[in-house]
Amino acid sequence: MTTISTAPVSLYGFLTPKPGHADELRSLLMDLVEPSRGHAGNLQYHLHEQEDGRFFLYEIWRSQEDLDRHNTTPLLRAFMDELPEHLEGAPEAYFGAMKSSYPAIVA
Fold first, then answer.
1. Residue limits of the ABM domain (predicted)?
2. Which of 69, 72, 76, 93 is an S-S bond match for 13, by CB 3.0 to 4.6 Å?
3. pLDDT tens digits, residue range 1-23?
4. Which DSSP string do the residues of 24-67 spell out, in sequence order?
């Protein structure tokens, strides 16, 4: 199995909507998926909805630089500005470099 030479980074976590805000939060999160997948260095970008109503976001980026670049896009900045209005408490977020290898993408 071939692997890429730099360690990808992952970002994942749970977001709990305020009562009555699940639809708005779902829409905001869904609006991030396809554009984020198109950003340079994105390897994975997935949104899940848990049975308890929380949303689980899972991202893998080729490098920290790619994630940093994504975080400065107008799309993400607008999302972050609007997010607190719809969240119950702070996001439960985790971040780190991957220790397992990530398969190279073969064109």
1. 9-95
2. 93
3. 444 446 899 999 999 999 999 99
4. HHHHHHHHHHHHHHTSTTEEEEEEEE-TTS-EEEEEEES-HHHH
